[in-house]
């Protein structure tokens, strides 16, 4: 595991797991949210998203967390290991609320400067609908890659904890 990609619904625990794996394996962690948002939640252009990710994947080792479906194939092709957090949407919504309360009027460590934590109906709806709208496409992509990549699917906080516990 040298080039690790983490994907999953908002609130699934991607950033937290990325940090834990990075510490265990001593591999740099890149949170796409910190690269692809500018101050006040202004998104970088698609061209910049592509350039940023193409630059990141050139590194010898990395852990990249974030979905960004429009550029996901860049990371899928470059990763040797893909970890998909397929966590129940109720847990994800709960964690999104918990995160919002924890970082209320503050910036999360994995976010770009000037992006204070927020939660809105659109984000909650995205999380709630993720199993229907995003999960099938993600599973399909992972199935196509299972012979060429290490695919790890974790379904619960317990499985995530066990996975971390097994790492050297």
Summarize the structure in words.
The protein has a single domain, classed as Rossmann fold (3-Layer(aba) Sandwich). Helices cover 49% and strands 16% of the residues. The chain is built from 8 helices and 7 strands. The protein has 168 residues and is α/β, with parallel strands linked by helices.
Outline of the structure:
With 168 residues, this protein is α/β, with parallel strands linked by helices.
Number of separate structural domains: 1
Radius of gyration: 15 Å
Low-confidence stretches: none
SSE succession: EHEHEEHEHEHHHEH
* DSSP helix fraction: 40-55%
CATH architecture: 3-Layer(aba) Sandwich
Question: Main beta sheet, described?
Answer: 5 strands, parallel
Question: Helix/strand/pairing class, anyone?
Answer: alpha/beta
List the helices and strands and how they pair.
Blueprint: E1 3-8, H1 14-25, E2 29-31, H2 32-36, E3 37-38, E4 42-43, H3 46-56, E5 62-65, H4 72-78, E6 81-85, H5 89-102, H6 121-133, H7 135-145, E7 150-154, H8 157-166
Parallel strand pairs: 1-5, 1-6, 2-5, 6-7
Antiparallel strand pairs: 3-4
Helix pairs in contact: 5-6
List keywords for this structure.
single chain, Rossmann fold, 168 residues, alpha/beta, 8 helices, two-stranded antiparallel ribbon, 7 strands
């Amino acid at each position: 595991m040298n080039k690790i990609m983490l994907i999953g619904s908002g609130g699934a625990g991607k950033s937290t797991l990325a940090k834990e794996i990075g510490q265990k394996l001593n591999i740099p962690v890149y949170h796409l949210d910190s690269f692809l948002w500018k101050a006040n939640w202004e998104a970088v252009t698609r061209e910049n998203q592509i350039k940023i990710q193409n630059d990141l994947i050139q590194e010898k080792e990395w852990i990249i967390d974030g979905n960004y479906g429009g550029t996901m194939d860049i990371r899928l092709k470059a990763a040797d290991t893909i970890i998909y957090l397929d966590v129940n949407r109720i847990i994800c919504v709960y964690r999104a609320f918990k995160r919002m309360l924890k970082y209320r009027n503050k910036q999360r460590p994995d976010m770009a400067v000037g992006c204070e934590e927020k939660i809105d109906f659109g984000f909650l709806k995205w999380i709630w609908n993720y199993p229907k709208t995003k999960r099938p496409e993600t599973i399909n992509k992972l199935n196509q890659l299972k012979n060429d990549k290490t695919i790890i699917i974790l379904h619960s906080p317990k499985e995530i904890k066990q996975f971390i516990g097994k790492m050297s």
